[in-house]
Amino acid sequence: MKSRVTKLFGIEYPIIAGGMVWCSGWKLASAVSNAGGLGLIGAGSMTPEVLREHIVQCREAIDVDSERKPFGVNVPLMKPNVDEIMQIIAEEHVPVVFTSAGSPKKWTSWLHEHGIKVAHVVSSSIFARKCEEAGVDAVVAEGFEAGGHNGKEETTTMCLIPAARKATSLPLIAAGGITSGEAILATQVLGAEGVQIGTLFALTQESGAHEAFKRRCLDLNEGDTKLLLRKLSPTRLVKGSFYDAIEEAENRGASSEELLDIIGIGKTKVGIFDGDLENGELEIGQGASLLKGNDIEPVGIVMQRLVLEYEQALASLGAY
Q1: What are residue 317's DSSP bridge partners?
Q2: For the segment 212-242, what is each residue's pLDDT rounded down to a tens digit?
Q3: Phi, psi torsion values for 247, nearest 5 degrees
Q4: Among 230, 225, 238, which residue's Cα sits nearest to residue 268?
Q5: Rounded distance, CA 105 to CA 131, Å?
Q6: How far apart are CA 13 and CA 34, in angstroms?
Q7: Which domains, ranges and CATH numbers included, belong to the chain?
Q8: What is the DSSP string of the chain?
Q9: Which of 217, 227, 228, 234 is nearest to 287 (CA)?
């Protein structure tokens, strides 16, 4: 599984855990890094002070036998206090930053000056090309299957990866709907050199999400998530009371302002972190239905299975 992505980040496997709001705290990030991947802390749901605490705890948790394994922070560039977030990241000597939800032009050079490697998340080949122009070290191409906020292009991973591969010469990381070693191999065939996985890690023991949310997601059937909120920021939601309210409003042509009123403040925390499945906003990827019936497992077991599935899938190709 060695690739430019493993070399770039100094990791054993080209597997990155997405920096998900209310899921990706220090426990999840450190567990993925300790298992040979790259764990990301999700700054999107953290105040600057809380982020610093998670960075410190993550560093302590992955300092094993004097061998410090890398970790990173995901920063949505639309955050109003992004300047303060970046300053903390530099002060704490975080080795890797994944940026999203904005243009990487402003921050990439600044992060490089502080010795930080930069990857940026995109939803189209056009933005992949712009990332290269901005000087990032790697591109994450995230397909329509992903949970949470999605690209307006609604391009699936199977279509996006080969298009992004043609658009950029940078190390390419696939994201969206990847829940198995077989899927990792498929993305490599299409031109990716690593994967970013969200849904699978969001439902592990180390994820900061509430157990009720995890169990709900592990009981989803095909079609139980859908992309809504296209007038604002396309978001993949789990069907339920909040979903119904948004869908009803959109079907009758609700304005952006009305949709914002329905969303309110902190609904993702209510649903994902607090576990209020009725009143909260539940975000997860399409791949959750492929995990139906699974247990809530530790990251170490999940990583071992991903690697084994990958190796078995690769070996099976020799039979043809």
Answers
A1: none
A2: 999 999 999 999 999 999 888 899 999 999 9
A3: -65, -40
A4: 238
A5: 8
A6: 11
A7: 4-209 (3.20.20.70), 211-288 (no CATH)
A8: ---HHHHHHT-SSSEEE---TTT-SHHHHHHHHHTTSBEEEEGGG--HHHHHHHHHHHHHHTEETTEE--EEEEEETT-TTHHHHHHHHHHTT-SEEEEESS-SHHHHHHHHHTT-EEEEEESSHHHHHHHHHHT-SEEEEE-TT-SEE--TT---HHHHHHHHHHH--S-EEEESS--SHHHHHHHHHTT-SEEEE-HHHHTSTTSSS-HHHHHHHTTPPTTSEEEE-TTTS-EEEESSHHHHHHHHHHHTT--HHHHHHHH-SSHHIIIIIS--TTTS--B--GGGGGGTT-----HHHHHHHHHHHHHHHHHHGGG-
A9: 217
User: Comparing C-alpha atoms, which of 52, 49, 142 is closest to residue 41?
Assistant: 52
Tokens of 173: 């990381």
The letter for the amino acid at 156 is T
75-88 residue pLDDT tens: 999 888 999 999 99
Mean pLDDT, to the nearest integer, of 136-149? 94
